[in-house]
Design a protein that fits this description.
The complex is a heterodimer of chains A (143) and B (148). Chain A is 75% helix and 0% strand. Chain A has 143 residues and is an all-alpha fold. Chain B has a five-stranded mixed beta sheet, with helices on one face. Chain B contains six helices and five strands; from the N terminus they run αβαβαβαββαα. The chains are: A mainly alpha (143), B alpha+beta (148). Chain A binds chain B through residues 4, 18-19, 21-25, 66, 68-69, 71-72, 75-76, 96-97, 99-101, 103-105, 107-109, 111-112, 115-119, 121-123, 125-127, 129-130, 133-138, and chain B through 1-2, 4-6, 8-9, 11-13, 15-17, 19-20, 23-24, 61-68, 90-96, 98-99, 103-106.
């Protein structure tokens, strides 16, 4: 479980970085953001933006009113990684339009999360599953 | 300065703002479902909806913060309003019901009347007032209760 203000702060930082990527057209900056996404998806406790939030802000804001599970955060970060990775490849391999479009998707998603508290993953995930998926087996306890 | 990036990024920010504003305005609004003569949907009973009560049938998924808000609101209304029940369904494990009942997003709340007919649906987290306003016309009036 995590303080939901952490991921929202991370989304705001991500949006700023993606704006910088789009303004400069820098593939290396896109790569840096892709690494941040990958780290946070793999190990949310080690996410660089989350560390900034916890060391600089959390203590000044007081305890959170509610906690949220980490699974959605990791899912969103994994989706963000795909966009940032495509943006990196686009810029570094000479297709800046591809880079700009992929970076814009990441920017739009981060912006919606930061400003509106809206998770695009929630919005699209079920539509995607109902179009493609068969019902998943319900989760059962291991033991 | 990268002009392509500025233009594409600007369009993305405008589109995201428009989507966010429309979404905020619509979230939780309960749309009335026109009454039909169709028989009661067989999936409802299978999902745990019991006739005789007004049921808030909530579809949720794991990747969904508003689902938790919705759960708190619906559970609270069910607890404090006699004749109202709350049933939560994990959308992912019941894709058959998701398709059959035309659910596209989580959270979606179907408001099922005491006869088992779907009277309303809301996408996004509704407020307590929105849920109460939607269930009130479906509950028996005190006079009806006394005569029953």
């Amino acid at each position: 479980m995590t303080d939901p203000r952490g991921p929202r702060f991370a989304a705001a930082l991500t949006a700023l970085v993606m704006v910088a990527v789009l303004v400069t057209g820098s593939g290396w900056l896109a790569l840096a953001q892709a690494v941040v996404f990958a780290l946070t998806a793999a190990q949310p406790r080690l996410g660089p933006y989350g560390l900034v939030y916890r060391t600089l802000l959390a203590s000044r804001l007081g305890p959170p009113a509610e906690l949220e599970p980490l699974a959605p955060v990791r899912f969103a970060q994994a989706v963000g990684f795909v966009f940032a990775a495509v943006a990196t490849l686009g810029y570094l391999l000479g297709s800046p339009l591809t880079g700009a479009i992929a970076a814009s998707f990441a920017l739009a998603a981060a912006f919606l999360n930061a400003v509106f508290g809206l998770c695009l993953g929630c919005e699209l995930f079920l539509a995607y599953r109902r179009l493609t998926g068969r019902p998943l087996a319900a989760r059962v306890p291991v033991s | 300065m990268d002009m392509t990036g500025l233009i594409v990024g600007g369009v993305a920010l405008l589109a995201a703002s428009a989507y966010g504003l429309v979404h905020r305005r619509r979230a939780g609004r309960v749309r009335a479902v026109p009454a039909t003569a169709d028989p009661v949907h067989p999936l409802l009973a299978e999902l745990g909806v019991e006739q005789g009560e007004v049921t808030l049938l909530q579809f949720s998924s794991a990747f969904c913060a508003p689902c938790r808000t919705t759960r708190v609101v619906c559970a609270e209304v069910a607890r404090t309003t006699p004749g109202v029940a709350h049933v939560e369904v994990d959308a992912e494990s019941r894709l058959d019901a998701v398709r059959g009942l035309d659910i596209w997003k989580t959270p979606t709340v179907l408001i099922v009347d005491a006869d088992g007919r779907i009277a309303g649906r809301a996408q996004g987290a509704p407020t307590r007032a929105q849920v109460l306003a939607a269930v009130a016309p479906l509950l028996p009036t005190p006079a009806e209760k006394n005569s029953a």
